[in-house]
Amino acid sequence: GCPGALRCNGFAAAVPPVRDMKSVKQIMGKPRRHWVGDGFHVYPVFHDLAFSQELSPWLMFDYASPEEFPPSRSRRGVGQHGHRGFETVTIAFQGEVEHGDNVGNKDVIGPGDVQWMTAGSGIIHEEYHSTNFAKTGGLFEMCQLWLNLPAKHKMTKPIYQPILHGQIPAVPLPPVGMSTTECAALADSGSGAVVKVIAGEFNGVRGPAATFSPVELWDVELGDLADTSYELKIPEGHNCVVFVRRGRALIGAEGKERPVEAQGVALMHREGSTFRVVAAEPGTQLLILGGEPLNEPIAAGGPFVMNTKEELVQAQADYRSGRLTR
Known about the structure:
The chain is mainly beta. The chain has 3 helices and 26 strands. It has helices at residues 131-136, 180-189, 309-321; strands at 24-28, 34-36, 40-44, 58-69, 77-83, 86-94, 97-101, 106-109, 114-118, 123-129, 138-148, 159-163, 170-173, 193-199, 201-202, 205-206, 215-221, 228-233, 239-246, 248-251, 258-261, 265-268, 274-279, 285-291, 299-301, 304-306. The strands form 6 sheets. Strands 1-22-19-24-17-14-13 form a 7-stranded antiparallel sheet, with no helix packed on it. It is globular and about 60 Å long.
């Protein structure tokens, strides 16, 4: 939380209207769920816009909403499979996810942790509920995002970034029109809004994830106040996707708000550098995905994302012949 008024300076009681406000381009409602392996019951959040230029550099977004799993002796998840040409970003909200790959990385992420894996030239990995979570059972909630790599970095060597929740800065987000004193009091009470900066920069604070192109990934908690508006800055020209993980939000300039229900998403126009969000319910939580569009061809097939069909065919042949990771 905010340690005092110092972190909240600059938010005067009278906030002038923002002229470069981003407007909503499209609202996509909650999709139907499907199973990935036997451990991940996910909403394909991007619908038919997955793997399109519309959301570049983001490719795909699977969200597993909170679900109770009984104790089990079996491993629930997805066995060994290969990737090339992009990155997978896994966020554990509740429960634990276990990862193992051919490079020798073996790791467990728990609530609030992030696993940022650059497949690059090729990696073979597996993803399961952790051994410990399988034994105890419990509530499980996570998401996995696929992030494209620029053409010049597609064949980079694989990289694994484990990002623990304690490494992710939490930046206070004051409501529009709130005075410095009110902001400090709200933050001190622990009921104020917070932006957890996983990647990119928010209000001068940079997230820990190293990226190959300009990207924003923010986990936003809008606090206990309902019918409260917030403004967040994102660079002009970047794509911006606002996912409502929990609760309900109104998104867009004042008088032009569009409602977004839980598990729904708002795709913003690239023009403008500020977007406005109203928490329509207490405890509303968002995931914000932003990024500079790569403006490069996308050739996607199964677990590979390249720029041309020839590169895609080569990736598939390399996987079949055991050369993907050489």
